[in-house]
Amino acid sequence: MPQAQFADQITLAITGASGAPYALRLLEQLVSANYQIHVLMSSAAKVVFKTELDEPWQNTPEFFEQRFSARHGQILLPGKQDWFSVVASGSSAPKTMLICPCSMGTLASIAHGLSDNLIERAADVVLKERGKLVIVPREMPYSSLHLENMLKLSRLGATILPASPGFYHQPKSISDLVDHVVARILDHIDVKQTLFTPWGYRPEN
């Protein structure tokens, strides 16, 4: 159970696909929504962050708390082999997990139930407990193998939400495109967001 001062718990896995800005914006929104977040970063994700972000990055609770203006204990950083983390247990893991961005390697491992690291195990737990697993793949083009793995996970109950922003909201910047994808993720886990106005709605509505 989350500590009393937090609305709920959630697991956010960040893997080695391109798309660090999606993960950062999503984490900002979850902190703002008062979630306690278990952040699972793969080794490849740390390489991607170093490549894509124009800022220094440290994988420590202190750095995350300062970077995201989070309260002490709001962002938890279990290691990839931390089998005693709550996310590894069906009896205590958060019921919702996001993988953003999701590499095709991670996708394949989850689809085949490998559970060789904490990200894969946490996803396996959410699936077996009939929780909510949202996978945000970032790759192009998709091979038939990628598509088969996505279909398999979709049939198991996961939501496949590709990082494919729309343009009907007339984006003016890269940040607008990032916000569109993050907003769609938040909509699927029932977290209120004000990043963009849904299709068909106007301020006067």
Automatic annotation (TrEMBL):
FMN binds at residues 16-18, 42, 103-106, 138. It catalyses: dimethylallyl phosphate + FMNH2 = prenylated FMNH2 + phosphate. SUPFAM superfamilies: Homo-oligomeric flavin-containing Cys decarboxylases, HFCD. Keywords: Flavoprotein, FMN, Prenyltransferase, Transferase. One of its GO terms (molecular function) is carboxy-lyase activity. Its EC number is 2.5.1.129. Signal peptide: none annotated. Residues 9-188 form the Flavoprotein domain. The keyword Protease does not apply. Dimethylallyl phosphate binds at residues 168, 184. The keyword Nucleus does not apply. Belongs to the UbiX/PAD1 family. Flavin prenyltransferase that catalyzes the synthesis of the prenylated FMN cofactor (prenyl-FMN) for 4-hydroxy-3-polyprenylbenzoic acid decarboxylase UbiD. The prenyltransferase is metal-independent and links a dimethylallyl moiety from dimethylallyl monophosphate (DMAP) to the flavin N5 and C6 atoms of FMN. This is Flavin prenyltransferase UbiX. The lineage of its organism: Bacteria, Pseudomonadati, Pseudomonadota, Gammaproteobacteria, Alteromonadales.
